[in-house]
Amino acid sequence: MPKMKTHSASKKRFKLTATGKVKRTMVGANHILTKKSTKRKRTLRKGSFVDSTQTKTVKKLLPYA
Known about the structure:
- The longest helix has 10 residues, at 52-61.
- This protein has helices at residues 8-13, 38-45, 52-61; strands at residues 14-16, 22-25, 47-49.
- It contains three helices and three strands; from the N terminus they run αββαβα.
């Protein structure tokens, strides 16, 4: 049986925690920042977790993580 391939886009965007949760970065923090408030930009710096409904899908894309 050949090795499974890791989804390249997913390995750049997601990390798995020790408890099995999937960490992700907040969207919208890369460009067009002038119109966003300081409070909003500060909140976007913090990480987040993938929703429980999507966790199974992301883990399937990262078989060796």
